Amino acid sequence: MRLLRPLTLTCLLLWGALAGHPGHAAPARQAGSGGLPTAVAAALQRAKVPQDALSAVVLPVQGADARLAWHGEVMRNPASVMKLVTTYAALELLGPAYTWQTPVYVQGTLHDGTLKGQVYIRGQGDPKLVVERLWLMLRRLQGQGVRHIEGDIVLDRSAFSIAARDPGDFDDEPWRPYNVAPDALLVNFNALTLNFIPDVAAGIARIAFEPPLVHLQIPGSVPLAPEQAACGDWRAGLQADFSQTGRIVLAGSYPSACGERRWSAAPADPQGFAARAIEGMWRALGGTLTGVVRDGQVPDQLQPVFSSTSPTLAEVIRDINKYSNNVMAQQVLLTLGREQTGTGTLQSARTVLDDWWRAHGGASAELVMDNGAGLSREGRVGAWALARLLQQAWASPVMPELLASLPIIGVDGTLKRSQGRAHGAAHLKTGSLRDAAALAGYVQGASGRRYVLVALVNSPNAVAARPALDALVDWVWADR
What is the pLDDT of residues 7-52, one digit of tens each? Predict the structure, then answer.
């Protein structure tokens, strides 16, 4: 026994050292089949999703010992949870108060409200140049005395260099706003919002839309569906066709039971959207234009007359993470490349992000970054690597801004409808693709202790695993 004691002590010390290492942390409170919490294992079984399709890591926000470690080293597609990496990197590299500038230039002679020359607008990646801000920008131009332009409005989009792509490449649904490509001059997310307003007496639903695009044919109304028709899938009932350039066809009807509804869609010809929106808004404000709105570059030495300033990065990432806005995340990633290297390309942005990732202790092999939004079949990350990053984020000066950007379970964003027991106690980014479901962020347990949670499911039936992820959140919360 005296001979065995030193060996026993050595084994215990070795086990303790391994338990404290992130790659070998000893899970605690694991119950049920295979070490997963019982409710999680049962939910996966009901969903017909294999347990090995799940990676799950639960860590205290401070400390190395895991409450749960399940296939944490497996590289998986995190879907929109990838936005956590992009937005955290942006907060640290650009700063929460970073803003985008969209300068406006006037070239020529101005007399009595008429400009004989050109107006230039230089896009620099603003993710939130929405309708209201476009209106303000053009009103500000009119405040400079420009009412009539005898020349062109020239759009400079050279800040980003992006290969053209078919917006339908990802899932054959090019009109979905989540498929919009990034653009140095992104106007209203390149999306049109249709507003359907029932008029029962007239038997129609009137249609209003914004921004006011020129060269767009769209019906002013559609017939109402039979009176007894339920709201249901009202979009499908409209039989919309967005595939024709300059024309939207609505061949169906609209149920009056829906009341007033809004529908955002990305019409055909995304490259022409900004030009049509800017000309349409300019004319809606009473301005005239004898030339055209076209692409070009601002001449050297020309100075801006003013600049439109975006909301701060801290505000922008709230939209990105709470509502999982893909194109805004891509705008932020390209901005990282442009600000850090002078070149707004995906290649430069990925290089910046890889350097940042490695500076935070991650290995390049632990992260496969595609477009920064997670709208990708190629993006990959390990649950352990992401959990370690979120631990570091908790200790970062930008933690409050990152945390405030995450959906609160049962309260807002993509988790507003969640019915879990952890109502209001978890800030978690969600991710969903046809074969991926994910959650990552922070959970405050009933004991008051806080935890990092990362859960990634990759399976053809991943969407059915959502109840298992909800059960995991409840298990982390119930930590008494």
Answer: 443 443 333 333 333 333 333 334 433 489 999 999 999 999 999 9
Judged by DSSP in three states, 468 sits in helix
Same domain? 155 vs 296? yes
- Domain assignment of residue 350, given as a range: 24-97+313-477
Verify that 198 and 335 share a domain, yes or no.
Answer: no
Instruction: Centre a 10 Å sphere on the Cβ of residue 41 and count the other Cβ atoms it contains.
Output: 19
Residue 90 tokens read as: 């942006």
Q: How many domains does the chain have?
A: 3
* Residues written for the chain: 480
Residue range 323-338, pLDDT digits in tens:
999 999 999 999 999 9
Q: Which amino acid is at 170?
A: F
| Mean pLDDT of the region 261-284 | 96
pLDDT of residue 170: 85
The Cα 102–Cα 126 span in angstroms is 7
- Which tokens sit at 91? 């907060």
Classify the C-alpha dihedral 103-105-111-114 as positive or negative: negative
pTM flag (> 0.70):
yes
